[in-house]
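Office hours follow-up: a student asked to see two folded examples consecutively, so here they are.
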Amino acid sequence: MSRPLRSQDWFGRKDKLGFIHRSWMKAEGFSDSVFKNKPVIGICNSWSELTNCNAHLRQVAEAVKRGVWAAGGFPLEFPTISLGEPFMRPSTMMFRNLMAMDVEESIRANPMDGVVLLCGCDKTTPAQLMGAASAGLPSIMVTGGPMLRGMWQDKPLGSGTDVWHYWDELRAGRINEEEWCELESCMSRSAGHCMVMGTASTMTSLAEAMGMTLTGCASIPAVDSRRYEMAERSGARMVGMVREDLTPEKIITRESIENAIRVNMAIGGSTNAIIHLKALAGRLGIDLPLSLYDDISRDTPVIANIRPSGKYLMEDMYYAGGVPAVMKQIEGLLHRDVITATGKTMGENIASAKCHNADVIRPLDNPIQTEGGTVILYGNLCPDGAVIKTSAADPKLMQHTGRAVVFEDHGDFMARYDTPDLDIDETCIMVLKNGGPKGAPGMPEYGNLPIPAKLLKKGVTDMVRISDSRMSGTSYGTVVLHISPESAVGGPLSAVENGDEIRLDVENRKLELLIDEQEMARRLGLFKARAPHYDRGYGRLFIDTVLQADQGCDFGFLIRPEKKDSDGDFAPGTRAADKLPLAF
């Protein structure tokens, strides 16, 4: 049932405040007609010239406005901070929560009845979902879409994945500097996010899988005219969602998040999705144990043949049928009766979906691998969990015991990993400490440690690497990530020493440091925390309040309780954005 329009408490008033609100808005050239009981639709734009993935979102916003106007709404675009993955230091992950707060408070503070979220680059998608979920107004997402495939010497290129590949080729001497320079100009051919199944493509796909976009939104290339048609339809649909009071908490449920996890496994999605989905669930008071990811992984095959797990790119996935075709293939594993932003159930949305290329989106009887692309590990090195993306790893290394070569932090690694006298061979396990939320800081994508050049020149293409950091979703290799608790807070990873034996056993979901309990206790007793990275500002807030990777790396004070408590925290069903005093 529709609620009274929230915006009318600004624009519909007959007193001094109403005069001020309408008069100030008329300064932008709007007439009296826009204030007459029209739903105000905010367009939350993460456009920035520092975020090339989102550099086209101004045009997307104009398309959204067309749809809002046509449906009888009043569109008002507003900016938030934007997180450009290649540029921000120390890591966009450090600023995901800041952007989520910016989105939430911008929605909460302003006269809008619903919001259209424009995203693309890795952290912009989860940040907007987290902020909108916390604010509680009807929301729909319009993703920016992947860039066009790169091309070099008639070879298709995938951003990120082929950067890592050809950087190794250069260091191994298999391509020259001139070819490396050519690649630089061939990799990124348009606006849009990475065109492999990196974190950006993963998170936009999962937004669709959860029902927060119109059907078929995620995979349309950024520069395809259908991207703008989708944006226009989304703007029109937002007006309908306001009238239906279809809020994020009605769409993002335990069941719809399980659908998203299932799709993440099927597409060989980024390990970063685990952290972002956990954080999103926390904003809605949904319990999402880490073990659930592994339970779903065990019976969900990888069917999307997209780099880095496969050979194709996101443009190919779109032509093959996109996320709807993937969901249709695994339909029997999904919760089909969950409601979506379309106003229909997920089952209704994908009822007519078809796959147009069975090599890009495989049938269940011909998967890329029989289990999901991401596995959760436990053991004395990671009592609260760790993750590995098996779909992008070497199957021969899934059971491996090796000698630890330890790097105390990223600076230590960069100083030593390519030195000729580094005591390492392909059987060793590279260990990086202090790469987590507090230790790095901000949990950067350090985890995909480059293989030392002397091993590349011997023909080594993969080896086991472990850390408490993350890796880009575009990356590949036998890389264990998100070890929790992190080494900077005295987690067991801090106790690893050069020469220790470590055993990785993916089949049995184990990661173990092969020392006895007494020796582990002795080493941990010697732990001394490093000085904090920041003494003021947002950095200090982050270090003091960020949760560990297994808890989603959100701030503890932003997690929503499952039930209303005595201090007035709102429970599901109560819109946070309505709990505000009047201005002036």
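And the second, which I mentioned at the end of office hours:
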Amino acid sequence: MPGIVGIIRPEPYEGIQRDLGLMAETMRHETYYVGNQYVNRGMGLYMGWLSHPCSLGESMPLISADKQVILIMVGESYSDNGRPISPEATGVGRANAHRLLHLYEGSEDEFLASLNGWFCGVIINLGTRKITLFNDRYGMNRIYFYEGEDEFIFASEAKSLLRVRPTLRAIEPGALAEFLRFNCVMGNKSLFKGVSLLPPGSSWVFAENAVPEKKSYFDFTAWEEQPVLKPDEFYEKFDETVSRVFPRYLVGSSRVALSLTSGLDTRVILAAAGDEKRELPCYTFGGLWGDTFDIRRARELAAICSQPHEVIRISEQFLHEFSSYAEKSVYISDGTHDAFGAHDVFFNQIARKIAPIRLTGKFGSEVVRTRRMIPSGDFPRHLVQNWLVPFLDEAPLFDQISQKIHPLTRVVSEEIPWYEFGRVAVEQSQVVLRTPYMDNELVKLMYRAPHVLRSSRGLQVGYLKRKTPELANLPTNMGRMTNDGQLMGKVTYGLFWALFKAEYIYLFPTPHWLTRVDRKLEKLKLERIIVGRQKFEAYRIWIKTHLAESIRDTLLDPRAQCTDFFDKASVRGVVDRHTAGTHNYLNEINKMLTIELICSSLLRSPSTSPATLMAPCPAEVSDY
């Protein structure tokens, strides 16, 4: 996804600017990205950046009036006047950007603390000869780094480091074990040896050398220690904050569209946007088997608000080109999103044609109701090489790794950026992704919520009732309604829950015995009866139909590198039994395929990287 790259090194070497260009080039996943470079040989800084057109990064660098401060920042931030910083040459957006420069001149800590959004960047202070590398307080705009001998190399994507430092092209066994068991790598680690992550809310300062002073500009303790409000007072404050904050995310120099579902999170956005009286195109993702509940309900919700709505569906084209989409999912995300996240690339490529900015209700349940995300999973030991078994056995659980005590802090600064980053990275490669649920003002307020409100759906339902009652009267995908406490509401919920559970079990954790029953009844095409109400992902079924040949060619190829980690005979057995329809190895095949794509697209020689992902990066080199 768009971001920054850089080398901090007091003494340059021959080819350093070539390496800088390669690092930026490696992050160019689409030809329409815009980019630039800034080089200050006197301070030993060589950096570049890429961004979506008409986004903040396009206007970088920002230079103070006295030409002593240079700010380079990619991502989005929202100022206290409710406007996003934009790349417009004149007007409110540009004024906000220069206001931040003035704020920096008063206090660096105040400047960083004023930023509100997902971002990363560098501040160069020529007067003090200091370089400050920073990211957002949640760590959603990642910065990977490598501390070498007399050099510090950083990038928004790990592959940029691997491109210019071949010694980093190796998987860290402990990190791999976490990925296999928990679907993510936890802590400030990456999958690759020697490559780490900048912690959330960092402001690392470099002065005359490549060794940073590792500082933080934000501590969640200040939010955790706020007094809890009484329920009535909190309801009032919640309504005021949502009504004031959410419309910020409708503003942009490019078109904005809402990724709409049947859930409460996006309904609240619709309700809050109602006062703006502007068009907000809506779309919903779907599959091959008709309209899901999300599609039907989203269509009704959009109609209530007089907004246009359309459906983006998985198509036969996607299944035919699955291998390409799967490789992009793994490559773009540096292996943090899996092969069966391929549809996220497909969906968001189409979504960009509707609007370059995608507004979503992501993380509403986690922030408003503090829902846990990272599972306590495992991975079959007999499928891996013997040397990897101890790493799986010793992989610590999330509770053992977490540095946070407050449940909301754990969610916003650890679980979301560790567990959900890969999907966000893939989506951000195609669109500018926005969610108002991680706005600083809302997150800060949620620390003041009484426990009884955080453990229910009452906050969002109450807001809808007071703001746009029609949006509250339609059931969610689980059949929940505003009369949940009544008998009919409970019966409806029970029925929807049973149907949801049946579909989930049929599509994902299907027991082996049930898989064999399904095979014997395949002429009845049970998927057309059971599937399509809630879910559109049918990879368990697609593996043995549309994707069988592709998966066999990839995993059973004698040159496959995933057998460095998985037992070769077991790989063949898993693929053969699943494609035959006698067993369900959905998770295992997903992990094996993902690791194979990590090896083939991220660890191999860059000269063989996919040409479509490696378009040249036009850049301008400047000395100040």
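Two things to take away from it. The radius of gyration is 24 Å. Residues 505-607 form one domain.
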